[in-house]
Amino acid sequence: MSCRRRCEFWKATDGKWYMILGKFEDADEDIDCEAYGPFSSSDAAQTHLRNNHSNPGGFSEDDSGTRPPPEKKINPQRARHW
Fold this sequence. Notes:
Layout: E1 7-12, E2 17-22, E3 33-39, H1 42-52, E4 60-67, E5 80-81
Parallel strand pairs: 1-4
Antiparallel strand pairs: 1-2, 2-3, 3-5
């Protein structure tokens, strides 16, 4: 099943990939999202999404490597607030 949740993947300045995912439909503010990572690649992050979460209804991807990693250290198997 697909729903409309914020979903972004990005390569951070540390060379690793991260994902931010809305906790519920139409979540847009960072406080309403959880961050996951680090992942070794975009494919690894997308595999985590497919294996552990419902379809968010689309996503964006930034491979520029210019965004910072999330402020808190994150375990891909356990979400924490962004």
